[in-house]
Amino acid sequence: MIPVSVLVQATPIDFSVVSGRGLTLKMAGVPIVRGTWFQYYEADWSRGYYSSAGQTQKVAQRDANTVEVTFRTSNGLVSGKQTYRRSATGLEVTYHFEWAGEKPVKIECGIGQVWAPAIPNRQFSADGIPGEIKKLEDVGGEVPARTYVKEGKRFAFRNGLGEVRLESDLPFTVFDARKGYAQEWAEGKQLLWAGQLGLDISNEKPLDFTVRWSLDGKSAYPATTATRSFDWKREPSVEVPADRAPIRIPLPSKDELNYEKAITWNGRFRLTKGEIPYWSDFPRTLNNRIDAKLMQDRTGLAFEGRVSELGLNAGGFRITINPERVQVLGQDVEGLRSGLMRLGLLIAFQGGQMRLPVGSLEVSPKIDWRGVHLFVGPQARPFQKQLWERVLRPLGFNKVVLQCEQTQWDALKGAWSGLSMPKQELKQLFDNYRAIGVEPIPLIQSFGHAEWLFRNGKNLELAYNPAEPYSIDPRKPAAREMMARIWREAVDLLQPRTIHFGLDEVDMRGFEHNPRLVTELWNIQIPFLQNLAEKFGLPNMLWGDKCLGPGEAPDAALGDSKAEAASRRAVIRKGTWITDWHYKPDERPSVFLPPLKLWKKEGMKPIAATWYRPENIRGFTLAAIEEGAGILQTTWAGYESNEEGLIKSFNQFSAMVLALDYAVSGRTDSSASLMGGASEALRTLYFDRPVMTTPAAGWTTGSGERTQGVLFGRQSPILFQSVLDETRKNLPTVVEIPVNKAGKELILKLGAELVGDDGDDLAVIELVGKNGFKTVVPVRYGWQARASNDNAPVITTTRTKSGESLLRIPLPTGGVTKLRLVSKSSYAGFFVSGLALVSR
Q: What is the pLDDT of residue 12?
């Protein structure tokens, strides 16, 4: 078997080559290059033929110092080879590209995504001419404003380890892809892109060139361990209740709540007009934010709630609060439930007390069908339960499209994988959604994107192209019957009210370019599937891209021609839900109106399907409001749904909150002005623990001051080695701290000196308990900590005004004998500036 990843190591130079990611090059552990890629495309960008980032290359180690990468498409149009040869002082890369098409095309080749923090003094030279990398806060604009080298053959810089030089046979460009460069490979990273743009290639003239990386560096500084002791001081209030602000998005249609005249509430309540339907939605939402002890008492604050005709849109509600009564009225059942949850978001905690604003609030959603697209997987049920109960349902989503072909369907035995979700887990997940008033819709790809069907070499006889199994062949009765079996199994198990057949990008792989053939296959499969839906008695949905021709949409118009697209639309039954995906980042609603209007004209029910680009969300959602369409916020964060996926793709989940704000409120504010609030709402609702309402005793490391209610000592920070900083290169890599205390929670105040890439390892926190018990907690850049000059959100922890983060670690019941702080980065400048231990 040929590996997809090969690692070759040496000191001080090491490199790895991974399919889809390309080259990673390090000097003494410091990243120099963090990825390379290339793509073939038409000169006018009308069509792409191959992208190394999205397709697979074969990676093989030829000897101890040589790695070879080869690639070839199934149709033979694209092929080539790259060879990586390491020497004592560098790395030589030879590139060979071939093209077998009739007409010439272009190649874009990224020869190195240079990690900007590896240039700490920001000085470089290009062909011997000095230049300077911008400060992070000054980076912005389009590529011309970001370009440092327009056409050069040599690029060099120095750092605390030595000199780095890049040379190429062909001139290359270097531009700054940090801070706001709207490409997925650049977001959350600190990269300078170096490469060639618009190289010519034809079937008569292959493309060959060589790139050389020279690294004149030294080996890493030695790892050392130090011990740091503290005089732990007992404190009766090591932590006091911190304030918790209300959540005030989506923007209401009418907001006359006055927090200046807020009333205090002790958690006692009485229901003056009998039981309130779905009352539990309120305390659940409140207790996810505030550890409030609610108690029914005849002297408590009066609450009442019911469904009432309010003249609002579906799902609307009105909340009225005064010192005598809290009233929640819903336009319908959904509105009542949404109102009770919104009430749980509106309550603030301030000065040690819960406070309810006086006045009224009214929400009348501008879009009725508000959904999110998610995957499933072995960890999906607990993760999605928390995501929806804490965030998405209280804020107002009411639909979820679950892409659930990755399930242990009986019909797929032998084609299961580690991503496959047990059937009963999926059923419970659907039941969870219905319990909170959300409609779950199963999506099973039923034509293309069928790799799941052919996993482990199974069912290849059903594939259109067994050599590159991607789509089924609808002409084969056995292929249609297989899809019917899976759908019967899914419908029997899940009892959905709507089903989604997928059907996007059906000929993306394994097909020759033949639009008429695609239409022929489409016109077989769509009637078959819709007849199946009719037998189930269920409405159906499908993606719309293969039914829109050039010029009929801003992007994702993959119908080949207007005539072919119209022929495919003609076989779709009137009244079908079309999840019409367009991801163009454009704030203007007018850009997205044509496809919505076209679908409505054809008798379909369109849903505007957006992705994570804020501009795309604003423009398309406002267009959906204008046309009376629904919205579906799509989430392509890997192919498994779990909390790690949320953390790694936090921007995609933050986009859900932004989309909901526009869909409910109809506000027209710029997406840039709203994105920060959406991200913070998601972060605090999902990750912040409920605020405590009583002080907690514990220990701290001497007299100090409070940070967000936690008392930390004023001791000097615990600093760790950073080989790029002359003052810190000889500091320890491990610090051990005696503790010998039993408690409930350890709180660390920590950070980093150097701006890094999201997900980079910073440190590991080890708690050693009695009898050898050990708790190990990783600390990663952007996930638990950031540099003070990096203003992006820290995802899983609470950040202080000074830029540090508070990391909370539950303690083992037997107590902690020792704390070990282990730096995992030789260059980040990790530090811990405060410690506190909370009693049980």
A: 62
Whether 742 and 814 have beta carbons less than 8 Å apart is answered as yes
Q: At what angle do helices 614-627 and 593-601 cross, to 10 degrees?
A: 40
If you ran DSSP here, which 8-state letter would residue 600 be given? H
DSSP string, 635-682: --STTS-SHHHHHHTHHHHHHHHHHHHHHHH-----HHHHHHHHHHHH
Backbone angles phi, psi at 96, to 5 degrees: -135, 120
- Asked if 785 contacts 794 with a C-beta cutoff of 8 angstroms, the reply is yes
Residues 6+ positions from 382 with CB-CB distance below 8 Å? none
- Average pLDDT over the chain, rounded to an integer: 94
Question: What would the mean pLDDT of 716-737 be, rounded to a whole number?
Answer: 91
The residues near 493 (Cβ < 8 Å, ≥ 6 apart) are: 423, 426, 427
**Amino acid occupying residue 413:** K
Q: Which of 757, 738, 755 is nearest to 185 (CA)?
A: 757
Nearest by Cα to 745 from 835, 643, 647: 835
Which whole-number Å values give the CA distances from 254 to 194, 250, 276, 365, 395, in the listed order? Answer: 51, 11, 24, 12, 16
State the pLDDT at residue 4: 37
**Residue 11 reports pLDDT greater than 80:** no
| 525 in Cβ contact with 469 (< 8 Å) | no
C-beta pairs of 428-431 under 8 Å, 24+ apart in sequence: 428/381, 429/376, 429/380, 429/381, 429/384, 429/385, 429/402, 430/402, 430/494, 430/495, 430/496
* Residue 333 near residue 439, CB atoms below 8 Å: no
- Express as a percent the part of the chain with pLDDT over 90: 85
Half-sphere exposure of 482 (CA within 13 A, CB side): 27
**Cβ contacts of 482 within 8 Å, gap of 6 or more:** 411, 453, 459, 462, 472
Cα 560 from Cα 563, distance rounded (Å): 8
Based on its alpha-carbon atoms, the radius of gyration of the chain, rounded to whole angstroms, reads 29
Report pLDDT for 219.
Answer: 58
